[in-house]
Design goal:
The chain is an all-alpha fold. It contains 4 helices and no strands. The mean pLDDT is 81.
Amino acid sequence: MSAAINTGGPAFPVNDLQSAHATAMAASIDIEDAAERERAYILARAEAVIGMTLRDYFAAQAMQGAFTPPIESTKGGKDYIAMHAYQMADAMLRARAAS
């Protein structure tokens, strides 16, 4: 079993519950099976409320410096940059937890 990834929780949680409800309704309205519609509603509402994770935000910020040289000239290209951006995000989360 692999260890769970620390996402740092939500970076920009949505406090507007009416918007979260509207998003969830839109995602589930065309589903005929009641149980499946409820599952789709719950998932869509949770995603709307949580927004992006702090890990995703940190990774996006870490990538900004990686784009200084043209991506094609960077060793490994886009996959290399994305992998290292998440490694930097994980390091930032560990540092945040240690302080």
